[in-house]
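Cross-check.
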Amino acid sequence: MADPKGFLNHGREVAQTRPVGERLRDWNEVYVPGSLLPIISKQASRCMDCGIPFCHNGCPLGNLIPEWNDYAYREDWSAASERLHATNNFPEFTGRLCPAPCEAACVLGINQPAVTIKNVEVSIIDKAWETGDVAPQAPERLSGKTVAVIGSGPAGLAAAQQLTRAGHTVAVYERADRIGGLLRYGIPEFKMEKRHINRRIEQMRAEGTKFRTGVEIGRDIDAAKLRKRYDAVVIAAGATTARDLPVPGRELKGVYQAMEYLPLANKVQEGDYVTTPVSAEGKHVVVIGGGDTGADCVGTAHRQGAASVTQLEIMPRPGDERSAGQPWPTFPMLYKVTSAHEEGGERVYSVSTTHFEGSAPEEGETVGNVQFLHLVEVEFVDGKLTQKPGTERKIPAQLVTLAMGFTGTDRENGLVEQFGLDLDARGNVARDDEFQTNVPGVFVAGDAGRGQSLIVWAIAEGRSAARGVDRFLTGASDLPAPIRPTDRSLTV
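Predicted model, tokenized:
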């Protein structure tokens, strides 16, 4: 145990954020560089090294949290990095982007603020990169087997790295022009600078993983032909079919899916554009959807100089504290103020969009530009969402982003049909206990098989699917499998 009295002697301290006025002028990460290291040893000492560490239950990766907390307390950064990487291929991703179900399950969190597990995690990995403790791990020998991984998000990258280290020859196919999936083009730079992805890609290249960008399986390469070319295939294409909003006026210009809007802003940071083709500058922006993707749209609109930003959520405002119906150690639905929300804007709960109102089409155009969004307040009556009469109103909206989640994997590119894959009742690719689909040698990992989920679950899926692939290719495997396909988050 790091310090038997650490949780008594020290309160919770988190990473400092830069002043709002400063960070809105750039796209760098919102945190003050180096602000964690001076406090992280004390924060790690708050870990009680519980006999039954429930943080393990909250984390699908099975991260050895008390162990690396102890090493961080003692400032043994090399040992901490080794323990961290024992269960997680990319802790710099989860340490920045995961909503930390481990902290929700922290035993200290029963009656005190939980241990800052995410902050300790990101401190360890950032220190490891600084000191050279992160190095390529090339396999000692090659198996002679080949694997294609479709998709380069966290699930695909985790599966690829595990299989490469097991000695298989792995090629990752990505339809975008750069590796990273939603990590690259869905997560704004201010949440995670893309240099963190780039150095992991270089590590994986040094280990032997091959990358093929700008290639969409199903369109550019027939899926059945790909299956014949490789000994095994891992589908990690995500659940990229966005939930739409079929209301009058949806066809107006200025109404976009979040994943049409956010990637363009990231491409500006990559140097592909001088200015984004879809900008919030000077516009009244409305974001429909109260989750993390919606918050990403809010922060992006702030940096583009929006005149106003309003975020709409159909559900009631969550509480500030755990409710009786969400007891520890489940992951509670709490009112969350992200860095984007700190920067301004209005959040409106319990409302539903009825229609959009637009301007008259310009000459030569068939539709006009969105100008207003009409909404109505809603409430639950006998468990059914019902509109409240007399609460209709409209708000200005010259740019609207739809951030309402995703409904399943892409069916339009032909991948599912060309492989001949079975789908489950929720539209996800069906798989067995080994993450194998109904097609022998074809496996699925991440959101494509699980449905929309968290980055930590994606990495766990990739690691687990890699074990299934390794066993399929060799008859046995020493690779870890932290989860089963049927495992779910610790919620109620």
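The CA atoms of residues 63 and 86 lie 8 Å apart. The longest helix spans residues 455-474. Passed to J.P. for a second look.
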